[in-house]
C-alpha cells in the first residue's frame, strides 16, 4: 500500500517540480536550514530561549533518530525495494525509518511552538511539510517513515521545551 502511494506520487513528476523538490529536500540535509534558524534566533536577545530550545530539540532528534531508531528498525528504503525508480538525488546510505529530514524539521517546528513563537512556528511548518513531502516525491522514504519522523520530531521539540523548563529557561512572566 505504501509503495502504491509512492508510485502515485511519481505520476506528478515534471522537470521543474523535480528541480524544486531536490532543492527543498536539500534544506533538510544535515539539519543545516534549522540550525541556521536557531543561530539567527540566538542573535536576537528576545529569541535566545527559542533558539536554545530549538538546538536542544535537534540534538535530541539526532540521538534518537540517527543514533537509535534507524539502527533499531533497519528498514530498507523504498528505492531499494523498487529499483526501477531512477533517483534524482544520491541514494541515502542509512536506513529509512524514521525520516531524519522530517524528524529534524518537525523538531524545529515543535520547539518553536512550545517556546511560544506564535508566528514563527507557523512559518516554519511550511518548509517542514515541504521537506517531508519531498522525501516521498524523491522515493527515499515511505509514508510511515514520514509520519514516524514527524511524531518523533514533535516529541523531541516537546522534550526540549520540558528540559529547558527544568533548567529554568522559562519565558519571563509579564505582569
SSE blueprint:
Blueprint: H1 2-10, H2 15-27, H3 32-43, H4 48-73, H5 78-81, H6 100-114, H7 118-137, H8 143-166
Transmembrane segments: 24-43, 50-69, 95-114, 146-164
Domain Phosphatidic acid phosphatase type 2/haloperoxidase: 50-161
Organism: Jutongia huaianensis
Describe the model.
The chain has 175 residues and is mainly α. The chain has one domain (2-166): Vanadium-containing Chloroperoxidase, domain 2, CATH 1.10.606.20. 70% of the residues lie in helices and 0% in strands. α3 (32-43) packs antiparallel against α4 (48-73), α4 (48-73) packs across α8 and α6 runs parallel beside α8. The radius of gyration is 17 Å and the shape is globular. The protein starts with a helix and ends in a 9-residue tail after the last helix. The model has no long low-confidence stretch (mean pLDDT 94).
Q: What's the number of extended β-strand segments?
A: 0
The helicity comes to: over 70%
Low-confidence stretches: none
Given the helix and strand composition, which structural class is it?
Answer: mainly alpha
CATH topology category name: Vanadium-containing Chloroperoxidase, domain 2
* Termini gap: 54 Å
Mean pLDDT: 94
Protein name: Phosphatase PAP2 family protein
Keywords: Membrane, Transmembrane, Transmembrane helix
Domain Phosphatidic acid phosphatase type 2/haloperoxidase: 50-161
Transmembrane segments: 24-43, 50-69, 95-114, 146-164
Task: Write a brief structural summary.
The protein is an all-alpha fold and 175 residues long.
